[in-house]
């Protein structure tokens, strides 16, 4: 069974599906659960940040950290061992780096069902992770 489960989490419906499956697997296997959020500072976010005075990255970072803390508190109350962490950068690179750093045996990411401009510009995060990671990957779908 998996001892260290890493969930890529940003509060989106697809990451909620990943969190749900990760929490269930952590309960079953008495595993450590790592919740990881990436503040995207590449592509359109970097352009948006450079174009205006508003602190887009700071606002996104605060929202992700707040969401992670709320979810972790709830899971701690249910008896799970949870660690939260955020990083700024390219999602695939940061998730891969953190998975290696923590020694995760399983990464769970949410499935984004529709094609987007960001996907076209940056490529699939899941595809990049498949190339980079030494651990198993579960792609969770919303039900």
How would you characterize the overall build of this protein?
- This protein has 143 residues and is α/β, with parallel strands linked by helices.
- Helices cover 51% and strands 23% of the residues.
- The protein contains six helices and five strands.
- The chain has a five-stranded parallel beta sheet with strand order 3-2-1-4-5, with helices on both faces.
- Helix 1 (13-29) links the parallel strand 1 and strand 2 (32-40).
- The relative contact order is 0.23.
List the helices and strands and how they pair.
Elements lengths: L3 E5 L4 H17 L2 E9 L3 H8 L4 H22 L3 E9 L1 H12 L3 E5 L6 H6 L2 H8 L3 E5 L3
Parallel strand pairs: 1-2, 1-4, 2-3, 4-5
Primary descriptors:
alpha/beta; single chain; 5 strands; 143 residues
In summary, what is this structure?
The chain has six helices and five strands, in the order βαβααβαβααβ. The chain has helices spanning 13-29, 44-51, 56-77, 91-102, 117-122, 125-132, and strands at 4-8, 32-40, 81-89, 106-110, 136-140.
Task: Estimate the strand proportion.
Answer: 15-25%
Biggest sheet features = 5 strands, parallel
Average pLDDT rating? 84
Tally of contiguous helical segments = 6
Sheet with most strands: strand arrangement: 3-2-1-4-5
Structural class: alpha/beta
Shape annotation: globular
Give the number of DSSP strands: 5
Taking the alpha carbons of the first and last residues, their distance comes to 24 Å
